[in-house]
Amino acid sequence: MAETTVRRVRHTSRQAEAERRNAAAALQRALDRRDNGGETGH
Q1: How far is the CA of 15 from the CAs of 4, 6, 12, 22, in angstroms?
Q2: Could you count the other beta carbons within 10 Å of the beta carbon of residue 28?
Q3: In whole angstroms, what separates CA 13 from the centre of its chain?
Q4: pLDDT by residue (tens digit) across 5-22?
Q5: Whole-angstrom Cα distance, residue 25 to residue 17?
Q6: Which of 1, 12, 23, 32 measures 20 to 30 Å from 40, CA to CA?
Q7: Three-class DSSP labels, the chain
Q8: What segments bear the compositional bias annotation Basic and acidic residues (predicted)?
Q9: Which positions ≥6 away from 9 have C-beta within 8 Å?
């Protein structure tokens, strides 16, 4: 049973990392859009 728990934790960790990367990318896109419309513009 401990092995199953370890596997589940590892899988969850990989999935959580992927979700974190996706969230970071989405946040960066949102910030880029906001910055592009700001004072400096691009």
Answers
A1: 16, 14, 5, 11
A2: 10
A3: 12
A4: 555 555 668 889 999 999
A5: 12
A6: 23
A7: CHHHHHHHHHHHHHHHHHHHHHHHHHHHHHHHHHHHCCCCCC
A8: 30-42
A9: none
CA atoms within 13 A on the CB side of 6: 3
Which pair of structure tokens corresponds to residue 31? Answer: 């910030």
Task: Please state the pTM of the whole predicted model.
Answer: 0.53
Q: Is 32 left (phi over 0), alpha (psi -120 to 50) or beta?
A: alpha
Residue type at position 10 = R
